[in-house]
Amino acid sequence: MVKVKFLGHAAFLIEGSKKILIDPFLTGNPQAAAKPEELDADLILITHAHGDHIGDAVDIARRTGAKIVAMYDIANYLVEGNEGITTIGMNYGPTEVEGVKIVQVPAWHSSSDGKYGIGNACGYIIELDGVKIYHAGDTFVFRDMELFAELYGPIDLALLPIGGHFTMGPREAAKAVEFLRPRKVVPMHYNTWPPISADPEEFRGLVGEKAEVVILKPGEEIEL
After folding, report:
1. At 219, which CATH number?
2. Range of 121's domain?
3. How many alpha carbons lie under 13 Å from residue 191 in its C-beta half-sphere?
4. How many domains does the chain have?
5. Quick one: which of 59, 90, 110, 182 is 20 to 30 A from 206 by CA?
6. Which of 161, 137, 166, 118 is nearest to 46 (CA)?
7. What is the pLDDT of residues 121-169, one digit of tens each?
């Protein structure tokens, strides 16, 4: 059994034979369902270099010994001046870390530290204990998502942004579901701040019978 807990915004904790944190933005996150010091992890996956996605990754990695997986440029950026952490830089494609199969896939979004562009944005398809989970990162919909389903499906759970303004809104995310064909989908990256206000029930209605939409409040989890 694999558990996926929504920590708020785009942050998730995946728990099975390994613990995987994705985009652990907790400090300064008004939705945060945990404090950084409350979390443990084997791996931390970062989708891009914006502060609301890198978040507390370095502090958690230093405390727990978790390895940070990120785009090569971002991995190098994080390790500079941050002794005591281990980063694994990669680029679009498959790898395996700590027995976890990971495919880093493209996302349509910018990636910077607020001043300089760093690497490219990405999403991840993770296979843990036979369960396949796609975290889209911040992105707009694009037809290559059909290729993700063809190459790496069936996808058990897709984690998709629906907040608009910086990412897909409900309409675009529903089209992404059509391309990805996941069994279940959890909306994310909405209602953290006013610019990304969205109604997850609208998203559910647009998805219809294409997949089971599971709306999680921060701190809630789904079992797969």
Report:
1. 3.60.15.10
2. 3-223
3. 14
4. 1
5. 110
6. 137
7. 999 999 999 999 999 999 999 999 999 999 999 999 999 999 999 999 9
